[in-house]
Amino acid sequence: MTTRLPKYHGLGNDYFVLDPQESPTPLSPETVRQICDRHAGAGSDGILRGPFAPDSADFQLIAGGGSPALCAVRIWNPDGSEAEKSGNGARIFTQYLYDKGMVRRGVPFVFATAGGPIEATVLRPFEAIQCQMGRFRFTHPDFPPQPGGNEIPLFGKDIRYCPVSIGNPHCVVLNLEASRENALRFGPALENAPRFPRRINVQFLQPLDEHDIRIEIWERGAGYTLASGTSSCAAAAAAIRNGFCKSPVTVHAPGGRLTVEIDDAWNARLTGPVAFVFTAIWP
């Protein structure tokens, strides 16, 4: 028996969509690792498992009773762990629902994630998918207050960061160049630093002007990635909070650009493209 796995990417951040109707068997962390392995498997930055209908157990687990969401999605990292939320994953999932004929262009709808509901709209198929990503928080159990504040000594440097949650946790580094080398060197240590009890996503922020920033990304459970929607949102929020930028913010990542709009109540709206890659057949 085989399973069809359509693959999409958002600026190089790629996900398979595993539809429960296509494969009703629950996913295991081992299967996720096998599929996502770029050498021994099909290769991706994660798996989107959905859509789960409102009458399913998975929907109830994620959204709870009484949710107005159309459906729910579970998000798997390539190391077999689950993520609460993903901005690129949200746009990919939105495009997938559009491709299935479940949603229409220009009509907002809501789907549930473990990190909270997301309102999405297909503005232009593939070219512009917009997602209301939720509200930022700068205090959270995922990054409890530290005696030394938001600084951490690492490899002979005092790393200054801004903690941000948008349903998943982020550590936005403020005083290192946004370079691939820094992401590869400091990212793993910051992700697994003892002060972050459930690990953390790491961004290296470099302001460019009043409305533009550059970032490099080390993603929790995935490693170095070319782009990340929630990372882009978190970095834009940190840039505004620290007086570097104003909304809207264009976020330049190695994979391309995303637009993040943040209102006075710290709610984020993310807009960017999605591309279809291929459909894999998994035994």
General description of the model:
Helices cover 19% and strands 40% of the residues. It has 283 residues and is α+β, with helices and mostly antiparallel strands. The chain folds into two domains: 143 residues, Diaminopimelate Epimerase, Chain A, domain 1; 115 residues, Roll (Diaminopimelate Epimerase, Chain A, domain 1). Strand 6 and strand 7 form a beta hairpin. Helix 3 packs across helix 5. The chain starts with a strand and ends with a strand.
Q: What's the helix and strand layout?
A:
Blueprint: E1 3-10, E2 13-18, H1 29-36, E3 47-52, H2 57-63, E4 71-76, E5 82-83, H3 87-99, E6 109-113, E7 116-124, E8 128-135, E9 151-154, E10 157-165, E11 169-173, H4 180-191, E12 201-209, E13 212-219, E14 223-225, H5 229-241, E15 249-253, E16 256-262, E17 267-272, E18 275-282
Parallel strand pairs: 2-3, 4-6, 11-12, 13-15
Antiparallel strand pairs: 1-2, 1-18, 3-4, 4-5, 6-7, 7-8, 8-17, 9-10, 10-11, 12-13, 13-14, 15-16, 16-17
Key phrases:
283 residues; alpha+beta; Diaminopimelate Epimerase, Chain A, domain 1; 2 domains; 18-stranded mixed sheet; 40% strand; globular
Provide a brief overview of the structure.
This protein has 283 residues and is α+β, with helices and mostly antiparallel strands.
Uncertain stretches: none
Can you tell me the CATH architecture of the largest domain? Roll
Helix content range: 10-25%
Q: How much is the average pLDDT?
A: 97
CATH class of the largest domain: Alpha Beta
Looking at the structure, the CATH topology of the largest domain is Diaminopimelate Epimerase, Chain A, domain 1
Strand count, sense and barrel status of the largest sheet are: 18 strands, mixed
- Cα-based radius of gyration, to the nearest Å: 18 Å
Strand content: 35-45%
Reading the helices and strands in chain order gives: EEHEHEEHEEEEEEHEEEHEEEE
Task: Give the full name of the CATH homologous superfamily of the largest domain.
Answer: Diaminopimelate Epimerase, Chain A, domain 1
**How many angstroms does the end-to-end distance come to?**
6 Å
Q: Overall 3D geometry?
A: globular
Give the assembly state of these chains. single chain
Report the count of strand segments.
18
Counted up, domains total: 2
Helix/strand-derived category reads alpha+beta
